[in-house]
């Protein structure tokens, strides 16, 4: 998607602090962190929202989820963290490229 912010970040057209990537996943620091640790875990494939996920994408979503413990451990928060997926404008989604927020560290507020 040529007009998608996260596709541009994945392509390296917009700079980001990348912490991990492989053939399917790109992980980078959120530009406006809401917690001490705030990473965005995104599929390299453009999927706009959770509602656009297809059964064929099951491997991608599994890969994203399965990467989270390792990412949390690398950030020094293996014992506890929060994950959020906002879906749609009504759900607070601002960037329409599916992403998992990984949040943690000191002073993580109650939910
Ligand atoms: P959403 O509200 O769509 O679930 O979350 C979008 C997230 O993307 C927000 O937490 C926001 O701070 C982050 N974000 C927006 N633009 C950029 C950017 O250009 N670079 C990075 N690293 N994060 C961004
Ligand atoms: Zn995209």
Structural description of this entry:
The chain has helices at residues 5-10, 58-74; strands at 18-21, 25-29, 37-43, 82-84, 100-104. The chain has 111 residues and is of the alpha+beta class. The chain has one domain (5-104): HIT family, subunit A, CATH 3.30.428. A five-stranded antiparallel sheet has the order 1-2-3-5-4, with helices on one face. A hairpin with a 3-residue loop joins strand 1 (18-21) and strand 2 (25-29). The protein starts with a helix and ends in a 7-residue tail after the last strand. The mean pLDDT is 95. It binds guanosine-5'-monophosphate and zinc ion. The site of zinc ion has 6 residues, from helix 1.
Number of strands: 5
User: Helical residue percent?
Assistant: 10-25%
Strand order of the largest sheet: 1-2-3-5-4
Quickly count the helices.
2
- What is the CATH class? Alpha Beta
Poorly predicted segments:
none
Overall 3D shape: globular
At CATH's second level, what is the architecture?
Answer: 2-Layer Sandwich
Question: Which sequence of SSEs, written as H and E, runs from N to C?
Answer: HEEEHEE
Average pLDDT metric = 95
What value does the Rg take, in angstroms? 13 Å
SS content category: alpha+beta
CATH topology: HIT family, subunit A
Biggest sheet descriptor? 5 strands, antiparallel
CATH superfamily: HIT-like
User: Termini distance?
Assistant: 33 Å
Number of domains: 1
